[in-house]
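Thread title: Can someone regenerate the structure for this chain?

I was given the following input by a collaborator and told the matching structure tokens would be attached. They weren't. Posting the sequence so someone can regenerate them.
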Amino acid sequence: MKHIELKWDHVFDDGETANVRYTRSRFFGRDRLYINEQEIRLPGMLAALLAGGIDVPFSFGGRRLNFVSNDYLIGIAENGIYGKTGIEYVPGQKTAYIFYLFAVVCLLIPLFTLGGSVPTVIGFIGMGVCFTLFKINAFKNLLKNKARIITALLTAVLCWVVTLILFFSGDISFKLFTGPEDKVFSGEGFSITLNEEFKVLENSYYVLSAKYKNSYLYIYKDDYSDCYYCPLNAREEAEIISEYWGISAEIYEKSGSRAVMEFVIEENEHKNYTYIMIYKDGAVFLLFEFYCGSEDKDEYRPLFEKWAETVVMSDGNK
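Best answer:
Regenerated them for you:
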């Protein structure tokens, strides 16, 4: 509502005149009504918003009056009639909060999906319809209050029906509860399933490098094709790496072609936790190195293990 300050002389039914001053707040605060400088207490901003305006019964000089302020009328009614205009006073419907409720129900759609163009459009269209039914006078004149409430309810239901159809068809997901969707990243000789929030980094040294929140993934190769000696299995490759890097790593074999090594290393006075899955593909070893700060190990280790298990090599083996 815009800021309004009005002053007028109100003539009561008995002929007595009173000076009226009304101030409507622009954004926050309580509206003010004074009659002969005597303040008539009005409801607060939130109460007025949920009620769709102000409709307050009060007494002044022994008279029973009603003060009304909404989007299309401001005035004082006495004995069911507004002064000067002669318009009949009709008590306001205390149902505005229902339209706000249905609007919020529609807006839950993009909240639950954490955005997305389609859910956002559905949610805002539903919200817009609910507000239109409540705020636009043409609809108030065309439809009775009960019909407008039912229409708002059907709008919210329709929005959610469409959303659920898209959800069960796999076109959208409720990321607020399920987290980001899976996404397959592929390279020469492999594919790995991470999630859509991984950001690929530009680094020509690695086959693939990517970042997810406070964790990183680096994929690189050890190629023994032109060497006299090739490690017999993934575990032996892990032992060679551990010795070459001068680290004490926990190594365990998944199979002859797969092994995992885990260790914590201090770099620039900061400790990092590293989880490496090693895959043997002939004379080539593919290393999937995940790492994060050691303080985040408990959060990320299950994810590292999950993502590493999704690797598929070019021969179709995991």
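The longest strand covers residues 270-281.
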